[in-house]
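Lab notebook, bench 4. The sequencing result for the construct came back, and we need a structural model before the next group meeting so we can plan mutations. Quick request posted to the team channel:

Model the 3D structure of this chain.
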Amino acid sequence: MSTPAHRPRIVVLVSHLQTPASSSQLAQLIEQVRPDYAAGAHIRVLDCVLADAVRLARQLENEEQVDAFICTGASAAYLRKHVARPVLALRMGGRDLLRALDQARILSDRVAILSYPHVNAELDRMAPLFTLRIRQGAYRTLDEARACVAELAADGCRTVIGSSLVVELARQAGLAGVLALSGDAIREALDDALAICRSARVEAARREQLDAVLRHLSDGVIAVDAGGLVQSINPAMAQLLDVRADLACGRALAEVAPGLDARAVLGTGEGEENRVVKLGRRTVVAQLMPIHAAGKLTGAVLACQDMTAVQRTDRHLRAQTRPSQFTARYELDQIHGASAAISTVLALARNYAASDSTVLISGESGTGKELLAQGIHNAGRRRRAPFVAINCAAFAETLLESELFGYDEGAFSGARKGGKMGLFEAAHTGTVFLDEIGDMPAPLQTRLLRVLQERQVLRLGGTEPVPIDVRVVAATHCDLRARIADGRFREDLFYRLNILRLEAPPLRRRIDDLPAIAQAILHRIMAPAGKAARIPALLALLLPHMLAYRWPGNIRELENILERAALSMTLPGDSGTCDVRGLIPEFFETGHPHEGHSSLVPCSDGGKQTTTLRAVSSAHQASHMRAVLAACGGNQDEAARQLGISRTTLWRRLRTTSADVGA
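Done. Here's the predicted structure in token form:
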């Protein structure tokens, strides 16, 4: 077809029984009209013998010299069967007929009208209005037209109205011929031809743009018609199938791509998605979708992706759709303390981080089991992947199942349209942290065991398992062996989880770490509010109580108490008294070493607290001295003053306790 940069090229073929000696009457009419279209089209008029019309049209088409043909009725119908370019017919209109009848009336009172391919029914109804005797005839082939003319001549008709071929036949039979076409008919045909050419140019531009898009697609795409024959194929698909694009067109899809057959889709009108097919040595994921146009099934399109590309896209999508909360914020280095208990645990955690084996962390509530899990994740190779944590005791069984494993659309009443990805899928390439694993319902323990064994997840309502690559870290506050004994925990799941073992020590077993932990917590709470300068005084006030407390809630309880104190407590010098008992009654519960002590701590001059060494039990004096010294920034004079001892006594006591620890 022509490009948008060229004027449409229209060829008017005027067919004759014999080569005319000069330009025909119809050709002359077209020449009169042609100047009106000079700016918008290139119009060429060719008088030719009917027998040569098809050969000449094909030659023009092969040489890309024509965008549309215009012929008279019978010639147009014949030419359409042999060329690909659009062919328009010159049609006789009402005004043309009246003009022709007016010319014929001068020649004879008996007039015949010969039409292709049927007679004008409206003219028969109007015949009584004319003074002429009018007879109509119709033809479909040249032989029928010749026979009609002979019959009309025998019947006494002396004038025949029709196309240029009919006029020529009439004159050969000794009759008068009147051309039934005028400038109006020619203009109408040219306008129609230009409209078709414009539409063709738009369609060609769209097709060229689509072809350019398909050429640059990494996915293989192939289109078939309603008969299942290949109409187009892009380079990616040709490479996948190892065929030449020009040789693939016109062949059945099953021949070009063994294993793929469009007959089912073309028969039912329903597509096939995510079909895994082997094409030669490659495995691809194929989608075959029907194409409908104007409500009719006109073909199908096949799109294929190489399996490696699908897997790469899957990883990218998982990363892009991953919720922002699926990250691990804490490092192992952020776990404060230097006691033997925590140092041993951190050393093991760093070793475990280098492995992908399952880790089981046990410990009381509030001992920092999730911090250990996050630290292990961030110290390993999966640190850039998601860290997904879920508390197995916080959900009902049915909800926990859908959260862990996800569900497909329609899996249950109220299921989200399109389904939902489970947390195991969301954690792909990363870590799943299952907190309170001992409280997981028994039916889900079975499903979890299968996930750990098979490394794939089956969504609720789904039929196709989804492969996953995750590391599992589980945590529990309860004795799993006791739960196995009473039938509440599967023994085989325990052994699957209990590969690498960590025990988070309670705070009372690492009491020497308490000052450092408390100082870090207070700094996190008070520094953003601009109250960091109050930390040493608050810490010194609370440490005697904290060192003597049993901490049943461990570090979580410590955080709560320190936040309460930081936000509510009046320090010495603010109002003269500090109501520790009223704000932190936990320190004075029944059986606590401080029971019976006054909660009002006297304040010394200058607003500094005087928590003397005598107020602290002997078992915790060393820890208390070190905490006060740390709170005073290492200033031994200030620490000794607050402790109520001399600087020499402080130095001696610290040296003695250090020697005892070394022994």
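The two ends are 99 Å apart (CA to CA).
Will bring this to the meeting.
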